[in-house]
Amino acid sequence: MRDVILHAFNWRYAEVADQARAIAECGYGAVLLPPPLYSDPDGPAKAGPDIPA
Q: Can you give the pTM of this predicted structure?
């Protein structure tokens, strides 16, 4: 099962690091982490005077 990828969307990087051994022991061969922009708990930037809509 080492060809299975864990998609850790919305996981904190520290959580993935803390769980790395358990993830590997479950048989995952890789972990996919999205760019931090898409994991921002406050959501995307809001439009404003300096940010175009």
A: 0.61
